[in-house]
Amino acid sequence: MIEKNIKQLYNILKVVIILKKEIKNISLSALFSALIVVLIMVGTFIELLDITVAAICSFAVYIVQIEAGRKYSLLVYITSCVLSLIFTPLSSATLYFIGFFGYYLIVKDKMQRMNKHIRKLLCIFLFNAAMCLLILLFKSVFALQNEPWQFYI
Predict the structure, then answer these.
(1) Degrees, nearest 5: CA angle 136-142-147
(2) How far apart are the C-alpha atoms of 68 and 101, rounded to whole Å?
(3) Which of 16, 23, 41, 54 could form a disulfide with 101 if both were Cys (CB 3.0 to 4.6 A apart)?
(4) What CA–CA distance (Å, rounded) separates 27 from 35?
């Protein structure tokens, strides 16, 4: 009888420890998601900081990946994208974060296990594809038809 109660108590403690870790990861993810949205709002109000803010937010997503894992960093990226689109629509900092900076360090960490030459080619391709899509998006969303394309690079 006592052994059965001890085993049940042990199982309950294991579940509590697992839940404590999950709660820590979820709260860390929520905190960094809010921080990213606030930083993107700052980058929206001060136009000179749009690329800088997007890069800083990318490091915030990477910190979550180091502390909590890839699943939580992807959740932070997705929630930050959705919330920043809600609070700061059509902002260049938001588009930079969604288009390239938000997911780049997550993908780059995954590519570290590849061959050196293939990794470099994929990084260059990823950067160029993302920047071409951002240029097309800026030209179509912001209706900057008369601007030369070199203006965005």
Answers:
(1) 70
(2) 19
(3) 54
(4) 12
Which pLDDT score, from 0 to 100, does residue 148 have? Answer: 56
CA dist 43 → 57, 101, 112 (Å): 11, 14, 30
How many CA atoms within 13 Å lie on the side-chain side of 15?
6
**Which tokens sit at 94?**
């938001």
Phi-psi region of 132 (alpha: psi -120 to 50; beta: other; left: phi over 0): alpha
Contact between residue 114 and residue 122 where contact means Cβ atoms under 8 Å apart: yes
pLDDT at 149 over 60: no
Does 14 score more than 60 pLDDT?
Answer: yes
Q: Could you tell me the pLDDT band of residue 10, with boundaries at 50, 70 and 90?
A: confident
Cα–Cα distance measured from residue 125 to residue 123, given in angstroms and rounded to the nearest whole number: 5
What kind and span of H or E run contains 114?
none
End-to-end CA distance of the chain: 73
Task: Note the pTM of the prediction, 2 decimals.
Answer: 0.78
Question: How far is residue 1 from each of residues 4, 6, 139, measured CA to CA in Å?
Answer: 5, 9, 73
Q: Using CA atoms, how far apart are residues 102 and 119, in angstroms rounded to an integer?
A: 19
pLDDT of residue 22: 85
